[in-house]
């Protein structure tokens, strides 16, 4: 085989340098853009929180209370009501023909321990007709299974029996999925002890596949986008539909018949 001439070797080296420089520039740009997107979404935190506080004052025939973190707030969605909480509230309104007041107790960045500290005291003062709980994803970053289970036990013990609790969503990355598997075993086991219904958020988000990072995730590559939140809502819909059909649809129909 003939060895490359000095000129060809020089061209190859120059081409490799260009490719390397391009890769470095793209990586730098990508990181900067990602940080920008995180800042942009971070600026929406008080906006979403204020939106939910304002709407919690609106009256409703049914009271829906949500416990959770930034996903319940709808961070990453085009508007707060595009979160899974908003989607589920709209579904209940349509299914029951009744008005729904939503008290969204969720706090962005909440862990299970923070939900116990900040959300349960407010929850204890309410008498909700519907309850959804999706909490624990933020615990994976600093994973402590003993603390997680202790917190989950406290949260689940405070819930009425008709509450719907979600297991953790699929993280798709193997090193996180190992922790998520342990967390979801804890959630299912403790929920069974308290006779609570677990909705399959992990299975629903896993079925979307790894490509969902491109289609179901906001530009910060962490929070769901509108499509992602619809997927989250789909995990709850079979259980919440059965629940409202059993407990509220007949009430709504009787009221309509009386009119």
Account of the 3D structure:
This protein is an alpha/beta fold. Helix content is 59%, strand content 9%. It has helices spanning 6-42, 45-55, 70-73, 84-96, 112-123, 145-157, 174-193, 201-207, 212-215, 226-247, 249-258; strands at residues 62-68, 100-104, 130-134, 164-166, 197-199. It has a five-stranded parallel β-sheet, with helices on both faces. α4 (84-96) runs parallel beside α10. The longest helix is centred in the first third of the chain and has 37 residues, at 6-42. It is globular.
User: In which order are the strands of the major sheet placed?
Assistant: 2-1-3-4-5
- Give the N-terminus to C-terminus distance in angstroms: 93 Å
How much helix, percentage-wise, in residues? 55-70%
Count of runs of 4 or more consecutive helical residues: 11
Please state the overall shape, judged from the principal axes of the Cα atoms.
Answer: globular
Low-confidence stretches: 16-27, 252-257
| Structural class estimated from helices and strands | alpha/beta
Write a concise keyword list for the protein shown above.
259 residues; alpha/beta; disordered C terminus
List the helices and strands and how they pair.
Blueprint: H1 6-42, H2 45-55, E1 62-68, H3 70-73, H4 84-96, E2 100-104, H5 112-123, E3 130-134, H6 145-157, E4 164-166, H7 174-193, E5 197-199, H8 201-207, H9 212-215, H10 226-247, H11 249-258
Parallel strand pairs: 1-2, 1-3, 3-4, 4-5
In short:
With 259 residues, the chain is an alpha/beta fold. It has helices at residues 6-42, 45-55, 70-73, 84-96, 112-123, 145-157, 174-193, 201-207, 212-215, 226-247, 249-258; strands at residues 62-68, 100-104, 130-134, 164-166, 197-199.
